[in-house]
Amino acid sequence: MTMIDRRTILKGAAAGAALVASPAVPRAQAPAVKIGILQPVTGALAQDGEHGRLGAEIALAEINAAGGIKSMGGARLEMVFGDARSNPEAGTQEVERMQGEGVAAIVGGFASPICLAASQAAARYDIPYLVDVGVSDQIVKRGLKNTFRFGPGFGAVTSAALDNLVKINDEAGKPARTVVIVHEDGLFGSGMAKLLQAELPKRGFEILETVAHPTPSRDMANVALRIRALNPDLVIPSSYYGEFVLLARTMQQQRIRPKAIYAVLNGAASNFRFVTEFPAAAELVMDCNHWPDHRNPKTAQVRAEAQRAGKFWLYNTPLNYSSVMLLADAIERAGSADRIKIIEALNSSTFAGHIMPYGPTKFVEGQNQGAQAVNTQVQGGDIKIVFPAAFANAKPIFPAR
Questions:
Q1: To bridge 91 with a disulfide, which of 118, 174, 175, 391 should be the other Cys (CB 3.0-4.6 Å)?
Q2: Cis peptide before 388 (omega within 30 of 0)
């Protein structure tokens, strides 16, 4: 073998060794999947919107840390946030912007009027829209193929609330018979009041009066005075956070003490901010509402993340966390950011990896059939589940006075 031949062989060997020793050439990163998160973070509903956004952020961070969408080569989920500014028009504008940014789906909306308008706007582009709260049943009764609601609507919640009220009242010896309904005068509260007016008499309760109030309201003194004059056994309020806090504090200050405040889908009664800041007004208030499953270990982890972010524990956070997890599962099964394929995947969903007290997800005409509300009560500065028994961590104190 000549010197040239030996040199050629050595060079070839060295080159081969260098290739083996060198790091692998990184593969191209899978394109991110854009997810629209729509919440009202300014205006009257800002508190709810901020906590809803936080739940979505916790879920997105967890999904991406676990490797993203594996069926799409580890594609990350990228949030495109939209501020609905506490009104439907702004929600619609944000959907149009999200369409321009190429989102694969949208989660959120919170308030029923925002969800109605935003999901309608999303339907024009076949954007899958997953409602987080929005309890008006009109949202899922318009035949929109793109719209899904993970939580229960106010028809199901009201029915459960009244069935549970009858059981709680019966077990206590039927101390409550008369009722005053207090509701915000928008789509949510007015729809709730109509259902209560139809159903309470069937269950043996007498409605003394139904009192409407605007949102926002700065003074609930007149409402409190009317309650005092009527002296009902029960006050059933369906309002957003600020209005119920005003009402509860005014009733406390004026020593108006019904046998129970039994709220339905109330914005403050199941809210640790209310419990922490106004403990005397909050004590023993009952509610039938969204609330996470305390038995699920993941619930404690999500709550710890919320507290690390300096937030109170509200139902908006676990609901939005669960909704984003549900959407990610649908995208994973679709193996695509194609909107129609995601809609198909949502329609066939059996997702059970949420932290709500629900069974596996099953959508029928856009409504999750596994969703249900629970009864909570403020006891000793904590929010306890008192009904149904399968999820309860306390017994109801009824009547409260």
A1: 118
A2: yes
